[in-house]
TrEMBL record:
Pathway: Amino-acid degradation; L-histidine degradation into L-glutamate; N-formimidoyl-L-glutamate from L-histidine: step 3/3. Pfam families: Amidohydro_1. It comes from Streptomyces xinghaiensis. Keywords: Cytoplasm, Histidine metabolism, Hydrolase, Iron, Metal-binding, Zinc. The gene is hutI. The lineage of its organism: Bacteria, Bacillati, Actinomycetota, Actinomycetes, Kitasatosporales. This is Imidazolonepropionase.
């Protein structure tokens, strides 16, 4: 099953042969995959947490801890009951039964709450300005969603100041953090001109290490009569200006956006510049996106709502994660992606918000978990795995999405005795405490 494939093999701190480092866009010392502190690097032994200067915190009294490491506990989620976690510096130093917890500088009593890894939201569009409330309102009154609505946001984003866009991104990252999201990817795609796309990426990189160049979101109005010319811009001067600021390259492969040949040109040009592909694929209709993603070794194919058997087979046989974005189907009253079909085929599935002002204006991973369980055939355990370790897999990261020695100290306490409550109590603000990189931030 998907949970074990990427959920195991990384119990050691940072030394796994499978550990992949990010390809750039790091903002400094605290970038993802950066060298682990000496306390964690020296090994998983509890004694490591006693190292000199870093302040350690023991979170004890956890009713159920989700580690996502089958070596540490039951099942694919690696469940540990009556558990404790020790955070030391930015990292997890120790996780296991409370009775065996090593000493730490400070202690937090979880008082019977459940604890899960910080959510990894591997797909969002946060660099934007403007309001589309009326579009949503109209759509809920019966008008079907069309990709062209993006142009409204493009106009508003181009007109916004840098300060305004920074403030918007900061607001949504903070909003997500309060709901337990400790890693968030975000994209350009509302500039659609060389300087505007580069600006969006620089702004995004100030708020997250996971930045994606999406110049190929739609063809902007200036190129309405010359889409080939726009693809030439995206794969030429725009890519030159944007590649230094991004880790990933993405394309909206869809009717009304970019066809298979155009998407291939965009992704291969980006890959030649060191950007790793990810693809908006098969959201609104059947098409070539998913198979192209797998063929090009994309990290993820996102949406996967309209899939043929051949698409599912390709995902099952390839390395590409299927990222499902139920907020989009919710907000457009569209048919749900069939997560059950993908999981039964052995595909690795991630859940993400797709947070954007047009088709999915939620930053809540718990909401997406609830939708996935209620409407997409996922079990509560599968949905939680997909929202944590699955998201990490979609970002090719093993340093987060799990609570295991050496991993980032990204931990969420729930005001609930079981992580199943994330789906069982939809819409309820269950996140009561969040640590990111070992620091309590909520
Ligand atoms: Zn998207």
């Amino acid at each position: 099953m998907s949970g074990t494939e990427t959920g195991s093999g990384t119990a050691g701190p940072g030394g796994s042969p499978g550990r992949r480092r990010p390809l750039g866009a790091g903002t400094g010392a605290a970038g993802p995959g950066d060298p682990v502190p000496s306390a964690a690097r020296s090994g998983p032994a509890p004694a490591a947490s006693a190292s000199a200067s870093a302040t350690s915190t023991a979170v004890t009294g956890i009713a159920v801890l989700v580690t996502n490491d089958p070596a540490l506990g039951e099942g694919p989620l690696g469940l540990v009951r009556n558990a404790a976690v020790v955070l030391d510096g930015e990292r997890v130093a120790w996780a296991g039964p409370s009775r065996r917890a090593p000493a730490a500088d400070t202690r937090v009593d979880a008082a019977g709450r459940a604890a899960v890894p910080g959510f990894v939201d591997s797909h969002s569009h946060l660099v934007f300005d403007g309001d589309r409330t009326e579009e949503f309102n109209a759509r809920m009154s019966g008008r079907p969603y069309a990709a062209g609505g993006i142009r409204t946001t493009v106009a508003a984003t181009r007109a916004a100041t840098d300060e305004r866009l920074h403030a918007n991104v900061a607001r949504y990252v903070a909003e997500a953090l309060r709901q337990g999201t400790t890693v968030i990817e975000t994209k350009s795609g509302y500039g659609l001109a060389t300087d505007q796309e580069a600006r969006a990426l620089r702004i995004a990189a100030a708020h997250t290490d996971e930045v994606t160049f999406l110049g190929a979101h739609i063809v902007p109005p200036e190129y309405a009569d010359d889409p080939a010319g726009y693809v030439g811009l995206v794969t030429g001067p725009m890519l030159d200006a944007c590649a230094p600021h991004a880790r990933w390259i993405d394309v909206f492969c869809e009717r009304g956006a970019f066809d298979g040949d155009q998407a291939r040109a965009v992704l291969t040009a980006g890959a030649a510049r060191g950007l790793v592909p990810r693809v908006h694929a098969n959201q609104l209709s059947y098409g070539p996106g998913v198979r192209l993603a797998v063929e090009l070794g994309a990290a993820s194919a996102d949406h996967c709502t309209h899939l043929t058997d051949e698409d599912v087979d390709a995902l099952a046989q390839g390395e590409t994660v299927a990222t499902l974005l139920p907020g989009a189907e919710f907000s457009t009253r569209a048919a749900w992606p069939d997560a059950r079909r993908l999981l039964d085929a052995g595909v690795t599935v991630a859940l993400s918000t797709d947070c954007n002002p047009g088709s999915s204006f939620t930053s809540s991973m718990p909401f997406c978990i609830a939708l996935a369980v209620r409407d997409m055939g996922m079990t509560p355990d599968e949905a939680l795995w997909a929202a944590t370790a699955g998201g990490a897999a979609a970002l090719r990261r093993t340093d987060t999405g799990r609570i295991t020695p050496g991993a980032r100290g990204d931990l969420v306490l729930l005001d609930a005795p079981s992580p199943v409550h994330l789906a069982y109590r939809p819409g309820v603000p269950l996140v009561s405490a969040v640590w990111r990189r070992g620091e309590r931030v909520h």
